Amino acid sequence: MSTAAFPLESYRPPEQYYDEFLDGNLQPRRHWEELSGILQGWDAGEFNRRQEQMGRIIRENGITYNVYSEDAGESRPWTMDLLPLVFQQEEWSRLGEALGQRTRALLAAVR
Prior knowledge:
Elements: H1 33-40, H2 44-60, E1 64-66, E2 75-77, H3 89-110
Antiparallel strand pairs: 1-2
């Protein structure tokens, strides 16, 4: 395994966009600190190994989706990011309420 640091150290967010991961001082936002700590222990080889393993598991288990709008409606392998999107508790609470509201509305419409 390489001794080079995981590429987090070289990551710089585009200036014109809000970055979910790093604040203006290029430090992980509070709600990303735990995951950032884990990632600091990974080098690029570890990240790539885990990404490849995830892809292999998806392929071996036949996890696919269909594109019904295309003539063949082909099954395609599911794609997934290795790193999750981390939400602040307050943000997740609001999102959860909104999703619950939409679910109740959909259920009411189909009954």
